[in-house]
Records
---
Amino acid sequence: MIIDKKKLLIGAVGCLSLLNLSACSSLAIEPWVKPYERQNLADPIMSNNRHPIANMHIAHVYEARESSRGSEGTGGGGCGCN
Amino acid sequence: MRWYLSLCFLTCLLLISTASKNVEAAVLQDDRVDVLYHSYKGGGMSIDGPAILLRKKTSETLAVSAYYYVDSISSASVDVMSTASPYTEKRKEAQLGLEYLHEKTLMDFSVRQSKENDYLAKSVNVNISQDTFGDLTNLSLGLAYSDNEVKRNGDEFFAEQSRQYRIRAGISQILTRNLSMNLNFEAVTDEGYLNNPYRSVRYIDNSQPSGVGYQSEVYPSTRNSFATKISASYFLPYRAALFIHYRYFSDSWEIDASDIEISYRHPIAGVFELELKVRQYQQTQASFYSDLFPYNNAQNYLARDKELSEFDDLTLGLGFTYLVPPKYVYGDLKSEVSLQWDYIKFDYKNFRDPTAGTVVGSEPLYGFSANVIRLFYSLYF
């Protein structure tokens, strides 16, 4: 249970850190990569979720055969893993 | 536990929704439909079936999605062959989603059901993400709840339940005009009946002619885990993409795991894309796992599930996508055909193959390889 609380605390601190960053968005910070400089990042070949249906299947295959779970970027659960 | 998770999520939600001041409209993703055939063969298991995913905008701020997936399973895996008989079954999964875009905030809500003849999982999922810092940064938060009913075929009196709670947070950051990175966290809590109701552990039993006895697995009724993933996407100067991610996982069953994946996507002649992938995964065993217990009821919790043992696996992946010229598609729509093949090799470090038929406890360590194929068609409209 001590471990659980520690993990939750880490999670909460992680969230709060993100939120602190977010709160700073009200400050006038100039983006160092201008919108017109992002054409490479916007190219379809750079999309992590280029094939969402394939990503969901891959995540399911691994979830059924490995103990690790979380942070895959897709949902999970119910498996047919015997 | 769930109160802490809910409180944390709601606090984060409130703050993130008030963080943005200087807003410009973002856009929802394109409408698309994907139709997939999938196949998994390896380790005595054969699983295949269809899947379909549909996304459609109903306005500039609202989109709906639907997903349906079928697994047709035929299993004669090592776990099944050592203590039971081969079986076949089906798993059907359905998911409905709603996305709402408000300026730079994207919210999505989905419900999901996964059904087998001995397992029913129902879940709800909420996510919120926000572009900020001149759209260089995207922050996201999510929460999911799943309620599961577990049954056992051939035992009409067996009925158990489990619940799962998930909370996740992420930050996506553009670092240069060619490089972006993501950092994701996810905590998962399970409670209830977490066993597989069919699996057994084995122990030394000299009263048996085989020298081995079997008893049902006993798992703890709670499990808490935390996963952190860092990933990077890099645009190469000759128009190709390089992806890398590393994930670290640990849980209250003392399993530590990590995986690293590198993939490369390369366009060819404007109509093909080639994808190459290498992934390596490793994990330590659960604290209550043993391949062979010294006697019956040797400890409070007992497991001999190979997914809880110490093992590693290596994936080599290859994919081709053909960008179908619009003139060949009704309405001149954009579409693609993709074929992906993964070869996965599993090597277990302390799970022995009981079907090898040698002296109990000195059988060869188990290992197998699997071939995973996905063939799918994507239409954008």
---
Amino acid sequence: MSAGLEARLHGILDQRYHHRHPFNVRLHGGACTPAEVRRWIRNRYYYQTRIPLKDGLILTKSEDRDFRRGWIRRIHDHDGDDARAGGLELWLRLAEAAGLERAEVASLRNVLPGVRRACDAYVEFVASHDLLASVASSLTELSAGAFLGERAEAFRKHYRWIEEAGLAYFLSRTTQAPLDAQEGLAFVLEHAQKPEDQERCAAALLRKCEILWALLDGVEWGGRAPKLSPAVQLRTEGDEALAVLPERAVRVSASGRAILAACDGARDVEAVAAGLRAAHPADERLERDVYDFVERMESLGVLVLA
Amino acid sequence: MTEAPRLWNLVAELTYRCPLRCPYCSNPLALRDFPEQLSADDWARVFREAAALGAVHVGLTGGEPTTRRDLREIVRAAGDAGLYTHLVTAGLPIDEAGLVALCDAGLRSVQLSVQDAEAAASDAIAGTACFDRKLGFARAVRARGLPLTLNVVLHRRNLARTRELIALARALDADRLELANTQYQGWALANRAALLPAREQLDAAAGVVAEERAKAARPEILFVLPDYFRERPKPCMGGWGRTHLVVTPDGRALPCHGAGELPLEFWNVRERSLAACWRDAPGMNAYRGDAWLPEPCRSCPEKTRDFGGCRCQAFALTGDAALTDPACALAPHHALVADARSAPPEEAWRYRVV
């Protein structure tokens, strides 16, 4: 019965883990531009920051001292301690090696909205599910070890402009992830005896795969170039504007107008925000506001993203 | 002079002529005389005056607006006035060449009606063979790059094909699909026993819509449970005289398609400015705002959302337009709606005649 579950979990990973995502295929295949690699590194850092929060939530769900002793190691692995740099620090070193500014990445101000939603959904999933389902959702680690080994190789081969020292995160996880995964898997196989519990574990892992997939969708979104839909009639009304479409008119504020004006179909979403950043150096929320605005205008049909 | 809200949307009923005979038509039941139609010049003035009142949209509708030979001029005048020109059509008698001419005149978007998801059933409701021609017109609209809304009026004979209707909208690359449950006014009220669905049909359709929405973002699907089954009235036209103004083929300025049937004084754009018709006509002010509301609406927290419901429905069912819409479960006359729901369905309907 447990063997059946284990095979089923591996089947889910084979089909739905993000190694099959088109962005990842391009990343590992060497097809990404430096801007795309940096976008991925910057955004994926938000995921790294959610991991210790998620593991903290899992700790609160267990009454078993031995379980907690084992699981707390994951938080140390990510946060580090006096003796060693943790995963978060290693990721920031990767960012620096790729030419990004540590402070900018650590500020999280440039995280794309789809990425933010996906990562927050993972923390929310663990917050709202029991210990078994939460541990099952971590079992993407079963695939992570080999996957990250591949990733380090791909970076060495295709993205030589990133120094070797920057790859320490991937290499550290190639040993940590399999250990974490074996612990998690043993727990799930021991505790998911009833068919309904096995169902819940499979569903939790599938949900986690969807979240990782959505994260990469969110990264890709940042590289798309918005422009005004040809269906829109843009009217100025004082400082504001009205974007008129079939059956709806969308009111656009003065700052929204400035964003729409920058959406010329040539610049991608990140470049639109970066262009406006120069004019508003003190606005801490600028990128978030621009991304949220572009996303909302896309959903209303005002902007189309090429 | 009273303060009137900003006009947002002008509904221009260009004609009552229509090659279709749908038994739920929102046009008046009794068109005793074929009313005189406003000329293209009259419409041009109406468009300019509407734009000056703040309007951004004009819906060119009818009847069937493409029966007018001067439609191209009318479209150009609406565009020149700065309005977003939206054609509401059955897809005939207009053809592709006619569409190209309208695009050149500044047409921006199209709403096309179909009556069902396949030819025989659709033509049976339309009362004439037209389904294939409609599909050809839809493709021509998308080929020109215009936004396309597909509109289907839902009732007991086509609700079961909700999924096929969504598939049709996808196949035609429509931007929006309006699954518009029949509103029981005019011809639809006369044919209510043949059109009113069973609750199970509506629940099943709502489930299909939810499934299909989850499958793909396109088309945007509008589906609202009809007021007869919601226990609350619809916020008709977004409130009486609040955002929309309908001008009929003979020039009457009304708050909605059906209000001409009410015993109220509305004004005519041939005799007065559109601003006066919108702002000062006694009929337009009869149910503006909420000071006129009867109980139980007056003390109801939902009055800001539904405005007491539909005045035409209150009038058609109770004889008094100032009563709470009987669709509301809190209305004194709610039994008129509840009884209709449980009445046995009829098979035959009466086609619209002009």
